[in-house]
Write a structure and sequence with these properties.
Helices cover 32% and strands 16% of the residues. The protein is α+β, with helices and mostly antiparallel strands. The longest helix has 14 residues, at 40-53.
Amino acid sequence: MDTFEYPFFNNSLKITHSAKGVIEIQWQKRKAKATELKSPRSKKVAATLDQFLAGKTDATGLTIDWENLQGTPFQKKVWMKMAKIPFGKTKSYGAIAKELKKPGAARAVGTACGANPVLLAIPCHRVVGSAGLGGFSGGGLLVKRRLLALEGHEQYI
């Protein structure tokens, strides 16, 4: 396992990865500490995030170590659905619930979004409410708006 901090919108992300892929990308409410990227995998993850924040690639291109993600079976199903939302697209909590054949589970989908262990790689910022933006545990609504704007969603600014 390797862990490092990555500068992200005046704060930082704590990133942990195994040899198989990322297992944690979590919001840290502080500026990133200077971290020397020792492993080639850490350098690749940081480079992918650099490209994503420059609008040149999609962070969902990061390899995820699905076996080592911590979550319930339902959460993992939601995360797998979210991971398939393409760059520049959004989907509602209700739509994901329907895809999972649980049409009344929009709130449970929202709870699973909030428990997403790998922000950006599993793009929970692309999941919105049917009547608005919804929430975002990865830094709040300002960060969600900035990420959606980066992907061309001006209506959420």
